[in-house]
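User: Hi! I have a protein structure encoded as tokens and I'd like to know what sequence might fold into it. I'm fairly new to this, so please keep things simple.
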């Protein structure tokens, strides 16, 4: 059987709405907003043997916090045209790039007063209501010329979102750097030529550069011609490199630097060092989509490394930051594009404890969620009382391998190993998924 449809990865069948969730501990009163998470939740799979985890239509899970209470939980399919028809509903408003009928399944967040579900590879982002119902495809008020990404990077200094976007099969020879201004409209695009159609899942952003990860998971022509649903695979002949695109530059200004032969879904934060190099910490795999063609787990395990990218020599030097396995890295949003001290990771790839990594010392503080329980992507939410990095709460969805209901767990960022501040008991399992955000009401208000 396909492991990506089993156990904690199996989809849930129902959309649930629950109010006044039970809590063990105390929900911090200043947390006023929504915790959101997106992930694949296929509604019927035609052929489980060939199903790829990344291709299931999205389902968003959300918990609304206010006044020290967990007011509601909701889970909703992101309604692309296919899911809407399956549910007997009207199609979503708007049109996706390439007339795709897919419900974005990889990330969800708030920007420019709207809630967005996002995915890479060409589908237009979709807006949702505060209560997570689908509105429709929204290409930033029609200003987005192609597809988008699940991993835009926010610059707290400018209020911009930056993205590196690829689009299959309509743009085989280039990727596009997209800048969305703080008003929610695209203000700059730069097409960057690349060979071999690499799968570029994420990007990094510093004050000076946008980083383009041109790594050896590429279009597999034979798979694509044979009608394969997921036509990307490890290509050992594709040399890994990372491009430094000056934020105010053009494609001609990209400085390509030779990188270790590996794959990276997720960098943590990046910044410009005083000596002109770029420092980025990232979760890297020796191989990806080589033997395992149904998902990312079977080829190698992710380790946590630091790349120092030197535009003067066009090289990358790599060192291991910490022991163990690390995925879904995040950082304190206050230090985005600036030098950071901490990263927060899940003990991947099967997920496990939640980890705070001191990237200067390699020390790890672990929060073990208990026997049979494992945490997903951790999110650091800053406390209002301080501007210091790491002073905040860590929100993490914790699941039970035995299939019991999930919890949204709130940890103290200054004492991660301590007992949770709060365990919010959700009414059902949250299938293993991808990415989310804490969206304060101050950013995207109700209504
Ligand atoms: Fe991702």
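Assistant: Happy to help. Inverse folding works backwards from shape to sequence: for each of the 447 positions I chose a residue that suits the local structure. Here it is:
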């Amino acid at each position: 059987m396909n492991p990506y449809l089993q156990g904690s990865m199996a989809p849930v069948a129902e959309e649930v709405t629950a109010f006044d969730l039970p809590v063990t501990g105390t929900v911090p009163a200043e947390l006023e907003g929504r915790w959101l998470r997106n992930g694949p939740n296929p509604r019927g799979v035609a052929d489980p043997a060939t199903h790829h985890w990344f291709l299931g239509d999205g389902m968003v899970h959300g918990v609304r916090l206010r006044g020290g209470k967990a007011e509601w939980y909701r889970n909703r399919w992101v309604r692309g045209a296919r899911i809407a028809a399956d549910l007997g509903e009207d199609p979503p408003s708007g049109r996706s790039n390439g007339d795709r009928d897919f419900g974005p399944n990889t990330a969800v967040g708030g920007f420019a007063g709207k809630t967005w579900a996002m995915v890479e590879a060409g589908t237009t982002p979709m807006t949702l209501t505060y209560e997570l119902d689908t509105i429709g495809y929204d290409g930033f008020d029609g200003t987005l010329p192609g597809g988008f990404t699940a991993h835009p990077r926010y610059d707290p200094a400018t209020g911009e979102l930056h993205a590196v976007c690829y689009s299959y099969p309509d743009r085989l020879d280039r990727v596009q750097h997209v800048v969305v201004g703080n008003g929610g409209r695209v203000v700059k695009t730069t097409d960057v030529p690349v060979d071999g159609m690499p799968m570029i899942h994420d990007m990094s952003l510093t004050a000076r550069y946008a980083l383009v990860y041109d790594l050896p998971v590429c279009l597999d022509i034979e798979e694509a011609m044979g009608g394969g649903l997921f036509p990307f695979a490890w290509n050992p002949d594709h040399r890994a490199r990372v491009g430094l695109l000056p934020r105010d530059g053009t494609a001609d200004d990209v400085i390509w630097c030779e990188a270790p032969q590996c794959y990276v879904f997720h960098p943590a934060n990046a910044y410009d060092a005083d000596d002109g190099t770029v420092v980025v910490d990232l979760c890297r795999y020796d191989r990806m989509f080589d033997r395992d063609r149904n998902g990312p787990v079977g080829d190698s395990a992710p380790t946590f490394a630091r790349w120092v990218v030197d535009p003067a020599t066009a090289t990358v030097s790599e060192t291991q930051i910490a022991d163990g396995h690390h995925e879904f890295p995040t950082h304190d949003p206050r230090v985005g594009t600036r030098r950071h001290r901490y990263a927060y990771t899940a003990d991947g790839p099967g997920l496990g404890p939640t980890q705070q990594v001191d990237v200067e010392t390699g020390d790890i503080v672990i929060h073990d969620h208990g026997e049979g329980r494992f945490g997903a992507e951790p999110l650091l939410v800053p406390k209002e009382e301080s501007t210091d990095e790491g002073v905040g709460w860590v929100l993490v969805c914790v699941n039970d391998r035995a299939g019991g209901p999930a919890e949204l767990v709130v940890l103290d960022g200054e004492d991660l190993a301590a007992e949770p501040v709060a365990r919010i008991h959700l009414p059902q399992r949250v299938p293993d998924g991808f990415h989310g955000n804490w969206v304060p009401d101050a950013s995207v208000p109700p209504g």
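A useful reference point when you look it over: The chain has a mean pLDDT of 95. Feel free to ask if any position seems puzzling.
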